[in-house]
Amino acid sequence: MATGSRCAACRQLRKRCTSDCIFLPYFPPNDPQRFAVVHKIFGANNASKMLKQVEEYKRGDVAESLYYEAQCRVEDPVYGCVGIITLLQQEIYNFESQLAKIEAQIQLLKAQGVATPSH
Amino acid sequence: MATGSRCAACRQLRKRCTSDCIFLPYFPPNDPQRFAVVHKIFGANNASKMLKQVEEYKRGDVAESLYYEAQCRVEDPVYGCVGIITLLQQEIYNFESQLAKIEAQIQLLKAQGVATPSH
Predict the structure, then answer these.
(1) Whole-structure pTM over 0.90, yes or no?
(2) Which string of b and e fits A53-85 if b means at least 16 CB within 10 Å?
(3) Which of B110, B29, B22, B11 is nearest to B66 (CA)?
């Protein structure tokens, strides 16, 4: 295969890219950063194992989620995407409190609505 | 250092564990699974780099979030903890819809409350 068509992984790892390369469909040469960040966080060997262990039709999602996780870890070296989970859980907690307050407000309005006509 | 006091990482990697071992404070020998799962997903070298690149007082949180992420990836090899983020975002979306409906309900109740006394 010509050098120009090597995938981003084989380019970075300076390897020959064969047609059965596990990275080829998910790490195109025009987006070297995508592989670089996955390589930095998970390592090429681990990423390759994680791709290979699932059925082929799921590998696009594996590559995408590995890239997302790796990107999060680069942006937040302490918490990675666990930091996002914590934020979202906090947001859900806030929604729950907000809903509880509003439910109480509705009960009050309903009670007033029931009481009003008899005055 | 005696074999018995090697950290979980040095035990698994069959290395000598020195008092300045980067893994020692965060991967105690009594929880070998904790290091095993981080090693499986990130690799010992990457995990070591990620611990070393932050200040010492943040390393406990790095180890904890790496363990959480790795555990998620073992449980869900396709989406890892990105699957949890997607679920939480869906939950937040549902809360938002629920709140919008309830707000509309309140407006209705208020309008009825205002209208009722004049009848």
Answers:
(1) no
(2) eeeeeebeebbebbbbbbbbbeeebbbbbbbbb
(3) B22
Cβ separation B102–A98 shorter than 8 A: no
Question: Distance, in angstroms, between B90 CA and closest chain A CA?
Answer: 10
3-state secondary structure of B28: coil
Q: What is chain B's pLDDT, residue by residue, as a tens digit (119 residues)?
A: 444 589 999 999 999 999 899 999 999 999 999 999 999 999 999 999 999 999 999 999 999 999 999 999 999 999 999 999 999 999 999 999 999 998 888 888 888 776 555 44
Q: Give this complex's ipTM.
A: 0.85
How many secondary structure helices (H) and strands (E) does chain B include?
Answer: 5, 0
